[in-house]
């Protein structure tokens, strides 16, 4: 007993403490794995039954993921299967409650099905509608997020099934409408568990190509189960995140996939998609001719209207006889010149008359005129005075007593005289 206890105390407590010299017993590893797996909770999963074998009270199933190449074996009691109203078959889509179990003796992991339920069309539609409402609440279907398609795409990316009718319809109808159209085709699985991954990969590859102007995802209809990949949330979010406009052309009117809601344009069929992504060359040529005719008529009307306008302007007097305005102004200038000259002449004449009058007044008031009328100027003559020296004018007889030499100035000149004495002025 003491030896077993001693041996037990030397066993490492954790897997990290094991070593080549101090390993765990296989039994201990199996027990710890079983304890860990037993603590794992049960989980509801969805998948497709691809294999089913009944062996007595047990049945063995193989479930495969809906959107990926992943499968998982599981076991179920037959009484669980017998409770189903509709017997399960290969290809059935189910949801199952799985619990991981480990068989200690063999170390084999087993997935035990505690409950299983088939997924009917009503359940699928309900789940699609719930997802549709959730994505709509996020705004993924908003018109503000949708991108406008180019008027004439240079290259179109086409994602469709391998050698499918949808591919042929899109290529043929687009070429009929616009022969120069170019396509970059990606053939992928459009149903099954690999469809979502392949469509997303093709979408991202085309979206990264700067030469691709629009991407078309086309499929020619099908059953609801076949169209489930086009309602996959991962694919819907990938389309919403694409920077290139995406056209949905699934061609299923009864049960519309969510791809139609998130795409920038929904086409009812692949043929409709071809008609909506490229214009009709014949219609465009007609529009070009109509536009040319419209431009020609507009240009003609413009020329005619401007011609009439020029004729109207030319008919005005100022343009019909432009020299009339110059002649009229010339007459005005000549008239003003005549008035100016007359005014100046009159002013000169008046000024000359005034000058003559003033000269006459000045001459009439001059001393010479007084002398001419017989008057004389008597001045005291000083014998010692030099010529040019001012002499006093005799204004009173007392200034010239008898014998005073005088100088008398008359109109004709001067002469000397001598005073004989003063006399009283005669009375009038």
Describe the structure.
It contains 13 helices and 13 strands. It is α/β, with parallel strands linked by helices and 428 residues long. It has four domains: 2-120, OB fold (Dihydrolipoamide Acetyltransferase, E2P) (Beta Barrel); 124-143 and 150-279, Rossmann fold, CATH 3.40.50.261; 281-317; 370-418, no CATH class. The chain has a five-stranded mixed barrel with strand order 1-2-3-5-4. Strands 7-6-8-9-10 form a five-stranded parallel beta sheet, sandwiched between helices. A three-stranded antiparallel beta sheet has the order 11-12-13, with no helix packed on it. Strand 8, helix 7 (233-241) and strand 9 form a beta-alpha-beta unit. Helix 5 packs parallel to helix 9 and helix 6 (195-207) packs parallel to helix 7. The longest helix is centred in the C-terminal third of the chain and has 43 residues, at 322-364.
Report a brief summary of the structure:
The protein has helices spanning 2-10, 26-39, 78-82, 121-138, 165-177, 195-207, 233-241, 259-262, 270-277, 281-314, 317-320, 322-364, 367-372; strands at 43-55, 58-64, 71-77, 93-103, 108-118, 155-160, 182-187, 214-218, 246-249, 265-266, 377-380, 405-410, 413-418. The protein is of the alpha/beta class and 428 residues long. The chain folds into four domains: 2-120, OB fold (Dihydrolipoamide Acetyltransferase, E2P), CATH 2.40.50.140; 124-143 and 150-279, Rossmann fold (3-Layer(aba) Sandwich); 281-317; 370-418, no CATH class.
